[in-house]
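testing teh design pipeline on a random one, pls ignore if ur not involved
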């Protein structure tokens, strides 16, 4: 299981990013919110871009924004492996997926807990990653929604039936109690479970 660490709940981002850099975590998950697609707003890009000053890990960017086309070119300048935005946005989905690929960055589409996996079907051939939200997007520290397990299985069946190679990532409320519900996924995002502990590596290892 690959692990992507979210620092959304961090009280000291430089310090926690340096600590994560010393672990075997696979990616740093960058949650970016615009106050429109979700109520909360994270720091602006001019501050967020300094993430790469504190870690050499590759970034897994999660755009919770109404206008992904505004932010994709910005995050493409960082050490970014994946840029994921939401299938619920009103912008042209395909154009944004192609915009991400134009920077030779892998693209992902995220689905909120109430959005059907089948909404991804038109975009499957273009996807490198599916992000299944296991909490309502907008803040860290929420409880994992149990229905996610069935959704992961549904996504796996869909990828198999369309012969698509995308990976399945699960985001929200991940800890060692719920990780067994995610065994059909390829990657999980862990936020407060890791960041709020003083044993980053131990928590990361407990999810693998
Ligand atoms: C929620 C974010 C998640 C969150 C994960 O909107 O997309 O990435 O930070 O944090 P935990 O693991 O605390 O739910
Ligand atoms: Zn996220």
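output:
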């Amino acid at each position: 299981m690959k692990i992507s660490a979210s620092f959304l709940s961090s009280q000291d981002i430089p310090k926690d990013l340096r600590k994560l850099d010393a672990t075997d975590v696979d990616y740093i998950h960058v949650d970016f919110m615009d106050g429109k697609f979700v109520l909360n707003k994270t720091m602006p890009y001019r501050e967020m871009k300094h993430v790469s000053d504190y870690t050499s890990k590759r970034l897994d960017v999660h755009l919770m924004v109404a206008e992904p086309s505004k932010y994709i070119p910005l995050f493409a300048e960082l050490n970014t492996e994946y840029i994921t935005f939401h299938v619920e946005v009103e912008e042209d989905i395909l154009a944004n997926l192609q915009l991400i690929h134009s920077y030779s960055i892998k693209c992902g589409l995220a689905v909120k807990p109430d959005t059907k996996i089948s909404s991804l079907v038109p975009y499957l051939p273009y996807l490198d990653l599916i992000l299944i939200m296991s909490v309502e997007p907008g803040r860290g520290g929420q409880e994992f929604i149990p229905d996610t397990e069935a959704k992961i299985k549904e996504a796996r069946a869909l990828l198999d039936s369309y012969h698509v190679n995308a990976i399945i990532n699960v985001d929200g409320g991940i800890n060692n109690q719920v990780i067994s519900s995610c065994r059909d996924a390829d990657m999980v995002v862990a936020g407060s479970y890791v960041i709020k502990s003083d044993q980053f590596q131990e928590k990361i290892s407990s999810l693998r």
